[in-house]
Amino acid sequence: MEKHHIEVMLDEASIDARIRELGEEISRDYAGKTVYLVCILKGSVYFTCELAKRITVPVAMDFMQCSSYGAATKSSGVVKLSKDLDLPITDRDVIIIEDIIDSGRTLNHLKKLLSQRNPASLKICTLLDKPERRVTDVKVDYVGFQIEDKFVVGYGLDYDQQYRNLPYIGVVEFD
Ligand code: IMP
Ligand code: MG
What we know:
By secondary structure, the protein is of the alpha/beta class. It contains three helices and nine strands, in the order E-H-E-H-E-E-E-H-E-E-E-E. The strands form two sheets. A six-stranded mixed beta sheet has the order 4-3-2-5-6-7, with helices on both faces. A three-stranded antiparallel beta sheet has the order 1-9-8. The longest helix is centred in the first third of the chain and has 18 residues, at 12-29. The protein is globular. Bound molecules: inosinic acid and magnesium ion. Residues 40, 43, 99 line the site of magnesium ion.
C-alpha cells in the first residue's frame, strides 16, 4: 500500500443529519407501503443500517454483492455478481442502497438485473455521488452528498479493505 494519510471530508454529525433527512423523505414517499432495502455488500452495510433506523414505514432487507473494483483505486469496468439476493423481489417496493456512485457501471448493471424480476417499483439511494466520473447514465432517486472526484474511505468505503469502520468520510491523500 502506497504511503498515504486520510483527511476528513464529511464528519460524523453531518452524515448523521443527512441520513436522518433521507429517512424522513423515504418514509414520506413510501407511506402505507413496506420498503424493501437491497444493500450492496460490503460498502453499503453501514449506510443501510443507519438509514433503516431512520425510516418509519415497515422495512425489509436483503443483501447482494458485486464488484467492479480490484484492490486498487480504479474501476476495472467489469461488474461481477458474487452473492445474489436470498428472496424474490416480485411486487416489492425496492430501493437499491449504494455507498457511492462513481462510473455508474455497477448500478446500471444492478438496476437492469433487478428490474427483470418484476418489483412493484425500483429506486436507487446512494450516500455519495461523484457525478464527474459518470460513464453510463443512471437515474439516482436519493443522494446523500455530491462529492468531488476524490478517492474516499470510511462509512463502509474501503481502500484495499481498510478504513470501512471510520465513522466519517475521509479523502485518501497520497504523500
Ligand atoms: P461504479 O460502478 O464505478 O459506479 O463504482 C461503484 C463502486 O466502486 C462502489 O460501490 C465502491 O465500491 C467503489 N468506489 C467508487 N469510488 C470509490 C471511492 O472513492 N472510494 C472507495 N470505493 C469507491
Ligand atoms: Mg461497493
